[in-house]
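C-alpha cells in:
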C-alpha cells in the first residue's frame, strides 16, 4: 500500500551527519518555527547492487516550485495526485532519467561518492541563513519521551523515504504508490537558485502502473518482481532501442503562449532513432493527465509538429508534457515554468 503520511517538510537545516556502513543514511537536522526534525536520506540500498542512483540538478526549474514557496513552514501533508506539489519521478517530468548514475556512499577521493554529492549542497545551505530545505517523503513521530538517536532533540521526529517510492522489487512492493516520491530541494533565495537532489534504487524500474505504482511486469519494463536486480532499461548516453523506448522520440519544443487568436498550441517531436516510428496508439498528456491520441509516423531523424486539441492544454503559468507509446509507457517527458512561457509567440525548447 502507499506511504501512510506522505508530504513535504519546509524548514531550515542546522546540522548534518554523513552516512556510513553502520548507518547508511545521510542525516540532516532541520527546524521550523517550533519543531525539530531529522531527515534520513538513504545513501546505500539494502538490495544489490547497493549503490544508489542519484541526480543533482544545481539549477532546478519546474512549475511545482511556485507551489512550494507558497507552503507554510513546517510539515505539510500532500495529496498523491497530479497538479499539486506531490512528486512523481515518472509522471511529473522532474528531470531526465538518463542522467541518473549510481554512486557508493563513501570512497576515497574528493567529490566522488554520494555523501559528498549531497553534502556540498547541504553545507552551502547550513552557511546561508536564508536557505530553505524541502524534504519530500514519509513522516514519522513525534515519538513522545524519546530522544532523536542522531541529534538528541526531544521528541524524536522526522522524515524518511527521501527517494523514489514506486516500481519496487517484491521485498518493498508494499510501499509502492504514485505521486509520493521523495526528494530534497534546496532554495537559495538570495541567488534565486533551486537545487534538486533525486535518489532511486537500482532495484526499481522506470515504468509503473498508474493506479498502484507497482512495476509493470515483463516487456520493456524489466524482469518479474521477484528479481531484485533488474537491468537498467537504459544507460546514460546510450542509443534508445525498442526494448528500452525511453527517449526514442523526444519532445524538443512547445509553443505554449501563441500570439494568434484563437490560440493554437503545438508540441514538436523528434524521432531520435534510425527507423520510422509509427505513432498509432501513442498519446500526449498534459499536467493534469488529459490525453490526446497521436497518429501518423515520424521518419528516422525527422521532426513532427503536433497541433494540440482539447482537453490537452499547456497553461502559461507552467506545466508538463508527457509522451506515452502504444503500450502506455513513458517515452519522454518535459516541464516548463511560467518564466519560460512568458514570451508570446516564442517556443519553449527542451
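Residues out:
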Amino acid at each position: 500500500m502507499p506511504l501512510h503520511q506522505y508530504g513535504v517538510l519546509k524548514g531550515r537545516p542546522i546540522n548534518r551527519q554523513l552516512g556510513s556502513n553502520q548507518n547508511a543514511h545521510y542525516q540532516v537536522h532541520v527546524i521550523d518555527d517550533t519543531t525539530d526534525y531529522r531527515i534520513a536520506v538513504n545513501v546505500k540500498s539494502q538490495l544489490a547492487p547497493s549503490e544508489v542512483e542519484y541526480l543533482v540538478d544545481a539549477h532546478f526549474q519546474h512549475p511545482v516550485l511556485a507551489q512550494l514557496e507558497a507552503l507554510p513552514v513546517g510539515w505539510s501533508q500532500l495529496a498523491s495526485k497530479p497538479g499539486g506539489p506531490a512528486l512523481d519521478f515518472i509522471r511529473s517530468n522532474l528531470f531526465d532519467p538518463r542522467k541518473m548514475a549510481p554512486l557508493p556512499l563513501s570512497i576515497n577521493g574528493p567529490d566522488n561518492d554520494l555523501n559528498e554529492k549531497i553534502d556540498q549542497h547541504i553545507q552551502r545551505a547550513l552557511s546561508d541563513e536564508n536557505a530553505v530545505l524541502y524534504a519530500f517523503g514519509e513522516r514519522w513521530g513525534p515519538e513522545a519521551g524519546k530522544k532523536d538517536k542522531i541529534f538528541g532533540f526531544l521528541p524524536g521526529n522526522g522524515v524518511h523515504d527521501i527517494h523514489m517510492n514506486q516500481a519496487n522489487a517484491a521485498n518493498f512492493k508494499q510501499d509502492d504508490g504514485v505521486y509520493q516520491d521523495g526528494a530534497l530541494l534546496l532554495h537559495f533565495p538570495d541567488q534565486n537558485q533551486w537545487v534538486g537532489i533525486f535518489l532511486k534504487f537500482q532495484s526499481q524500474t522506470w515504468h509503473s502502473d498508474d493506479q498502484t505504482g507497482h512495476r509493470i511486469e515483463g516487456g520493456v519494463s524489466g524482469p518479474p518482481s521477484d528479481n531484485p536486480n533488474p537491468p537498467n532499461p537504459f544507460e546514460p548516453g546510450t542509443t534508445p532501442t525498442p526494448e528500452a523506448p525511453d527517449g526514442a522520440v523526444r519532445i524538443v519544443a512547445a509553443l505554449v503562449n501563441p500570439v494568434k487568436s484563437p490560440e493554437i498550441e503545438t508540441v514538436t517531436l523528434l524521432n531520435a532513432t534510425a527507423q520510422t516510428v509509427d505513432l498509432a496508439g501513442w498519446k500526449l498528456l498534459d499536467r493534469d493527465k488529459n490525453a490526446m491520441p497521436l497518429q501518423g509516423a515520424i521518419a528516422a531523424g525527422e521532426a513532427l509538429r503536433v497541433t494540440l486539441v482539447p482537453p490537452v492544454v499547456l497553461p502559461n503559468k507552467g506545466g508538463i508534457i508527457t509522451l506515452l507509446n502504444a503500450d502506455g509507457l513513458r517515452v519522454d517527458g518535459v516541464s516548463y515554468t511560467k518564466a519560460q512561457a512568458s514570451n508570446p509567440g516564442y517556443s519553449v525548447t527542451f
